[in-house]
Design goal:
Blueprint lengths: L26 H9 L3 H15 L5 H14 L3 H14 L3 H16 L3 H14 L6 H14 L3 H12 L6 H15 L5 E8 L2 H13 L4 E6 L2 E9 L2 H13 L6 E4 L4 E2 L1
Antiparallel strand pairs: 1-3, 1-4, 2-3, 4-5
Helix pairs in contact: 1-2, 1-3, 2-3, 3-4, 4-5, 5-6, 5-7, 6-7, 7-8, 8-9
């Protein structure tokens, strides 16, 4: 799972230890434990909370508890199910946060179009949420992953207008914005270059079927299979690593303006 999808201080699947409270844990205690990376006691206490309170707790508390359970799970499908339940409930800011998490899962699964839809739903349903500013940053990430650099830069500009951004997102945004302001140089990931167009088309189709929309371009007599256009080399490198884990071992990052390997 992508590093940016990690819950604040809580990587899915980690087993950080910590002390449980002396008595039954409140949701405040459990959320604080999740935020600080105390995964084992957070899971334990959340299971106890559900056993004792699921049938009698107020709806808002159940929504919050299921959001926390989603953050603690290491299985993407299970997390998506929990986040979707919370998102469609529509009764708290946790619902808005759940749409953001769903978008991040879609990005991790190489589905930027679905991520954009999730983020649009967040803004439509929760226009006053504190998560709206963060949603514009992640919309830019989704547009960038889809190769729409102009759309990415516009979205990042919308995010930059807000003062409510998460500090980590603010730092990422500043780096992306600087890249938008740099003239000319853009980045892509190349999977191969061939003299035979059919070979290139076959590789491009295999990448697209794996969730990485690819394009074939002709340059100097070679048919080149490429994925994405990025405003920063770091984003391109992250895509290249994801491609390599999916058996596209020849993925390399290129500066499109010069074609030079980085």
């Amino acid at each position: 799972m992508a590093a940016w999808l990690v819950a604040e201080g809580c990587a899915p699947g980690t087993t950080l230890a910590g002390q449980s409270p002396p008595g039954p844990a409140s949701l405040d205690w459990i959320e604080a434990a999740v935020d600080s990376g105390r995964v084992v006691p957070a899971r334990t206490e959340l299971e106890r909370w559900f056993a004792a309170n699921q049938e009698t707790a107020p709806r808002a508390d159940v929504v919050r508890a299921r959001y926390l359970r989603a953050r603690l799970t290491s299985d993407a499908d299970s997390a998506r199910g929990e986040y979707l339940w919370v998102a469609v409930d529509g009764r708290s800011d946790y619902s808005a946060a759940a749409w953001l998490r769903l978008a991040q899962l879609s990005l991790a699964e190489s589905d930027p179009q679905r991520a954009v839809q999730d983020l649009e739903r967040l803004r439509a349903d929760y226009p006053q949420s504190t998560w709206v500013a963060d949603s514009w940053y992640w919309t830019g990430v989704a547009f960038e992953a889809a190769g729409d650099l102009e759309g990415a830069c516009r979205a990042w500009g919308r995010a930059g207008d807000s003062r409510s951004l998460d500090p980590d997102v603010r730092a990422r945004l500043e780096a992306s914005t600087l890249s938008c302001e740099a003239p000319g140089l853009r980045w892509t990931v190349q999977l191969g270059a061939f003299r035979d167009v059919d070979t290139a088309a076959e590789l491009g189709a295999r990448a697209s079927n794996a969730g990485f929309p690819a394009r074939v371009t002709e340059e100097e007599g070679l048919y080149k299979v490429r994925v994405g256009r990025f405003v920063s080399p770091a984003a391109a490198r992250e895509m290249a690593e994801r491609l390599k884990t999916e058996s596209f071992s020849d993925a390399v990052v290129l500066a499109e303006s010069s074609g030079g390997r980085r």
